[in-house]
Amino acid sequence: MVPTRFREGRGAVTDASLIERKAQLPSVDRVMATDAARVAAETYGRTAAVASVRASLDEIRPAWLAGASVDVAPERIAAAATLRLEGAEQPSQRRVINLTGTVLHTNLGRALLAEEAIAAVTAAMRSPTALEFNIASGQRGERDDHVRGLLRELTGAEDAVVINNNAAAVLLTLNSLSEGRETIVSRGELIEIGGSFRLPSIMARAGAKLVEVGTTNRTHLSDYAEAAGPDTALMMKVHPSNYRIEGFTKEVSARSLSPLAREKGVPLVDDLGSGVLVDLSNHGLARERTVQEAVADGADLVTFSGDKLLGGPQAGLVVGRADLVKRLAKNHLKRALRLDKLRLAALEATLKLYRDPDRLAGRLPTLALLTRPPEALKAQAARLLPALARAVGADYETAVTDTRSQIGSGALPLETIPSGGFAIRALLGGSSALIALAAAFRALSVPVIGRIAEDRLVLDLRALDDEAVFVAALDEMTRARAAT
Ligand SMILES: *Cc1c(COP(=O)(O)O)cnc(C)c1O
């Protein structure tokens, strides 16, 4: 049977060779009768297989009718349709190998979860859970109760509320405490971070009136004092996550601002951004003020992310004074910004790891990756160098190199960590050959993402989470090159 769409149009086609070529193009049914198409139908379902065969025919038809030499054997078309189905089966959000040198890469999904958190998420996915149910009383419970106690214990704060992300935490805080009223912020802290988080815009959305004080480089306690008036609802400190103002500067610390806020009777909010719960200097990294310190310094509310240095799922955490937390929890926005059971399960499991700080670096992938010694990374690179050299071929020069990683996501923006990896240089073709190589790495089944620095493609091994997968990617590249 010849499907309607392959039948000759009403006299419109007069060219005999065109008619002949149309007739030579196999029908969908003929392609579906091949062994390959039968396998595809079994694997992906008949509907999807037929649609894919049709799409494959549609793709080659114009070139074929124009006289190009195209292989139109039914087996070939069935094979093309199968490839198309395989491609469509790949998740859009694919696994990648992060060799960018940025451990908490926002575009690559930030923190990798600990096994304990993964197990908790899997369990919560499979079964009903006591998400908002008090098992002892049989009454309705609060979803945030699963982490409130832990957050109190770990941060020293009176209470806590958790939502979608830290941007939501700032939005909810400002809307709950400063809607229609003023929030005082230093001009040096009016941040914009990636993904369109701009403090003035969030303030406007929250309905808070921004009162800027000081100058870009210098803000004094007296600036806050003079700006505070009857309409002041909040004073706010914001961590300059992705820049640093240096030179002739003056900043008022949260600790110095806190007594003034108290005197004026307004809460002080400290947006930490990354939010660490451990002293990073104990792990050989530069110190970053911890959440506990921010609480102890007198901030009434502290906001931070779940998926930055905390090493958990995407979440926004607010800890602080119980009366203020209650106002946030009661805001209707909280309902729109709340966490689902999966992320709450991951967050609870992640926070529990902090009860055992001695084993934290072994269990929390973010900390494990950040603390890998550069010598170990260089030794790993030396071991993998032959496989890399085979993969890229003789047109490129490969070498083990010292490099510098970043934490990423706004934590210690100017600090870099000594690291190790590969530097690849194109022997021919200059920067376009390097760009082509970077694209070839991205085209692998598990894409390898590096960074181009000057005339090198740098692959930093710090954030490599699975060596075997990287080796398989290199082997795939070697085979692909041998086949062309
Ligand atoms: C990262 C960051 C945010 C936004 O946090 P998300 O979890 O990405 O929403 C807000 N404030 C500061 C200071 C940050 O560093």
What is this structure, in a nutshell?
Keywords: Cytoplasm, Protein biosynthesis, Pyridoxal phosphate, Selenium, Transferase. By secondary structure, the protein is α/β, with parallel strands linked by helices.
Question: Which features characterize this protein?
Answer:
484 residues, Aspartate Aminotransferase, domain 1, 7-stranded mixed sheet, 20 helices, globular, binds pyridoxal-5'-phosphate
Describe the structure.
- Converts seryl-tRNA(Sec) to selenocysteinyl-tRNA(Sec) required for selenoprotein biosynthesis.
- Pfam families: Se-cys_synth_N, SelA.
- Pathway: Aminoacyl-tRNA biosynthesis; selenocysteinyl-tRNA(Sec) biosynthesis; selenocysteinyl-tRNA(Sec) from L-seryl-tRNA(Sec) (bacterial route): step 1/1.
- The modification N6-(pyridoxal phosphate)lysine is found at residue 308.
- One of its GO terms (molecular function) is L-seryl-tRNA(Sec) selenium transferase activity.
- With 484 residues, this protein is of the alpha/beta class.
- The chain folds into three domains: 6-89, no CATH class; 97-105 and 369-483, Alpha-Beta Complex (Aspartate Aminotransferase, domain 1), CATH 3.90.1150.180; 115-361, 3-Layer(aba) Sandwich (Aspartate Aminotransferase, domain 2), CATH 3.40.640.10.
- The protein contains 20 helices and 17 strands.
- It has helices at 16-24, 28-32, 35-44, 46-65, 74-89, 115-126, 145-155, 166-178, 199-206, 221-227, 254-264, 291-296, 322-330, 332-337, 341-353, 357-363, 365-370, 374-392, 430-442, 467-483; strands at residues 97-98, 133-134, 139-140, 159-163, 182-186, 192-193, 197-198, 209-213, 232-238, 268-273, 301-305, 316-320, 396-405, 417-426, 448-449, 451-453, 456-460.
- A seven-stranded mixed β-sheet has the order 4-12-11-10-9-5-8, with helices on both faces. Strands 13-14-17-16 form a four-stranded antiparallel β-sheet. A two-stranded parallel ribbon has the order 1-15.
- The longest helix is centred in the first third of the chain and has 20 residues, at 46-65.
- The protein is globular and about 90 Å long.
- The two termini are 39 Å apart.
- It binds pyridoxal-5'-phosphate.
